[in-house]
Amino acid sequence: MHFGQPLPICSHFPQLRELLSLVPTTSATGWKFYETLFSRCIHLHAAGSEAFLASCSQYIKEALGVTMKLPAEGLRFLLLAIETTAAATGPHAKHMQRQVQPLLEIFGQIVAHKFRPTKKKETSDYKSFVDETIKSYGTYVSSCINRADKQKKAVATEDAQTATTVEAAQDVQPIDEDFRRICKIYIGHSLNYKNPHALRLLNVAISHRQKLHFDPDEVEFVLSSYWKQLYSDIAAGDIAALDVNCLELAFPLIIGYKTKEDLLVLLRLLTSEVQGLPTPLSPSHRTELQNVLTILSFIAKCSVSTIKGAMINKHF
Length: 316
Fold this sequence. Notes:
Blueprint: H1 9-12, H2 16-22, H3 28-42, H4 50-64, H5 72-86, H6 93-114, H7 123-157, H8 160-168, H9 177-188, H10 196-207, H11 216-236, H12 244-257, H13 260-275, H14 283-300, H15 304-311
Helix pairs in contact: 3-5, 4-5, 4-6, 5-6, 5-7, 6-7, 7-8, 7-10, 10-12, 11-12, 13-15
């Protein structure tokens, strides 16, 4: 499973329960097996995995029952399956997207039940659930918005073909006030630019801020929080020690959507740091210079319009 061509295990074991009887999840080794199964055998060898993914959906539905409370094992399988199928690329991407939809519908039911307005819970309880499930929530929100848009277009067309599409899409999650409320709960409990899943969710929310009623004050509050965290880490020391992938996501998100003032402040900080460096450089000053070069590499990946916006800023 780790080397060479991925084994088509799902073709030989099309039912999840069959594998669970052979490889239980009672140990870390068992979960490692299933993580590898999804990341290699299914993600890289999608053909032949349809029956297995369908059995995963059925297994999770049965575990969910009428209580809408999924055991830890079932939730972990659900998140693993969503993460694998949603991340599919290449020739199998469209095929895998069809497989992920039933899983997302189950995920949506669990989330809606957890955050139902009729039952108030402690903030810590919400926080722990958000931390556990945010890796799939961004995918869920994006899928719901896209499906709602397609349904709206199908209704507007009103021909035989789209009528069938509309009929089949009656179970599409509406983008209503409850949906928007839950989305903001997730964003509020994941204010951490070092979390790539939080960055993805925020990017989706800002891109669709009109549909989600994500007003400018709320956007400003979230991005200001991210900026303070990022600025604090920049001032603290070696940037190279931070997660480069998160930094590459955070820089264009903050600079591109917030204000050009933030980029201006950053450029002035970098200028003052470079001008203050002595010659020859000490080890600590070399780290400072490396920080400057690292940040500039991130800025270079921002859109041209963002950079130009800062250049023509009246305070620049």
